[in-house]
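Appendix B, Record 12. Input sequence as logged:
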Amino acid sequence: TALDEEILTYTKKAQAIYAKRAHDLASQRKFEDAGWYFLEAGDKKQADEYFQKAAISYEDGSCDPKLEPKYRMVRAGHMYKELGQAERANGIYMRGIEILIRNKEWFIAAIVYMEMGKYEEAISYIKREIRPDGTYMHNDLLGECYLKAGYTKEAQQALMMAAKYYERSFGNTMRPWAINYYRKAGMHEKADQLQQAMFDEASTYVTE
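Logged structural output:
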């Protein structure tokens, strides 16, 4: 149909723009960014080539000299994971985690463990960051890890606390996050109420 042809033409133009941007980034040795743009351009082979270059440059330090080793290792691990090289990725991740733990950067270490699928370890490190009132600082991430690890009751409790925190601390700005976490916690009625309030406020704004 004419609509299909129009969509195809638009897609081809968009891919050409992405490809040009990818080549520009590659010439600046921004290999990871180039890889993502090649992927958007529909060129998986080129994307993987630049993800590989990015992984190597992160690992050997030939990338941005301002990027700290701990972040280089995490980025290298992410690139190897994207390339399907899980064993290599996990080895690199562990090198980054060693630095993070030595520096007591528990939250980032937890994120890396979560990326590796090591949810028990992630939970352990998330719990090290506590607010003055005794609650965990990252209940959203904690709840997600509990879910992945199969701790349904603990997940619901953490996600409920995350939802309340987003609703109370950020108001309308983060309300969609609160709704999402209330749903994951099984509190669908509360989520529906918040969502309806959002719709009502949006309707009032449009009609004013």
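The chain has a mean pLDDT of 86.
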